[in-house]
Structures are given as structure tokens and as C-alpha cells.
Amino acid sequence: MELTVRAHHAGNVVVVRFAGRMVLGPAMTAATDWLRELITRNPQVVLDLNELFFVDPSGIGALLSLYTSATSCGGKLRFARPSRKVARLLETTKLTTVFPVHDSEEAAIAAFVAG
Fold first, then answer.
1. Which residues pair with 45 in a beta bridge?
2. Number of domain units in the chain
3. What angle do CA 77, 114, 8 make, to 5 degrees?
4. What is the pLDDT of residues 23-69, one digit of tens each?
5. ∠ at Cα 14 (97, 35), nearest 5°?
6. Which residues touch 57 (CB under 8 Å, ≥6 apart)?
7. How far apart are the C-alpha atoms of 108 and 6, rounded to whole Å?
8. Could you tell me the CATH number of the domain that includes residue 38?
9. Domain that residue 27 falls in
10. Bridge partner list, 102
11. Alpha helix locations (H) across 1-115?
């Protein structure tokens, strides 16, 4: 399954839903380029990872790059609802110490309001 991306606004926060596989290739490159551009306009971003079923090493690199882009624009990138497989990957690689991970989109959005 190829990577698909959908986005919507929730106040000042952009919620981006990834679905499929985040692997090296044109779909991931296009999605991350688009998201980097979006971050320059609205650096408060929640990535909903509930429908993301696989992330390869280049996908991890892309997520780290997006996090850096958001922080350099004065914002933050938060994860919401990672699929079981992606949650395990984030825990195994200790990326949960880098990325704030929330159980729901609502909790991730509320965390922006709380600071």
C-alpha cells in the first residue's frame, strides 16, 4: 500500500493523517516535501499515525527531519494514535524520547493549548 496523506485544521493546529507504508520512494518524498512547506506556514502539527503500517529507516529519517523543520519554525510536531507496529518501532528506537506521542488526536491538539 502506497503512502497517502490527508490533512485538516483544528484551530491553529494542522492534523495530518498518514496511511500505508512510509518507505523510500517518490510518494514519501512528495509527502514530506509538502509537509515541510505546510510547516513553514503552520508549525503546530499533529501526525496521526493510526493507519501507518510500516516505516523503513528512510521514513524514520523523514520523521526526524519534519520534527527539526517544525522546531526551527518555532513549532512542534506531535504524534497521535500510532498503529501498534509503529508504536513498537518508536519505543524500540527510543524515538518516544524525541517525539511527543499521544493516545488520540484530541489529546495531541490539547497539548498544544496546554503548552
1. 14, 77
2. 1
3. 45
4. 999 999 999 999 999 999 999 999 999 999 999 999 999 999 999 99
5. 75
6. none
7. 17
8. 3.30.750.24
9. 4-114
10. 80
11. 26-41, 57-72, 84-92, 105-114
The strand pairing partners of 18, in sequence order, are 5
* Total-model pTM: 0.93
- The H-or-E segment that residue 79 falls in is strand 76-80
Which CA distances in Å does 69 have to 41, 51, 92? Answer: 11, 23, 24
- The residue among 10, 7, 4 whose CA lies nearest residue 113 is 10
What pLDDT digit, counting tens, does each position of 56-84 carry? 999 999 999 999 999 999 999 999 999 99
Q: For residue 52, what is its C-alpha cell? A: 501507518
- Give the number of other CB atoms < 10 A from CB of residue 6: 11
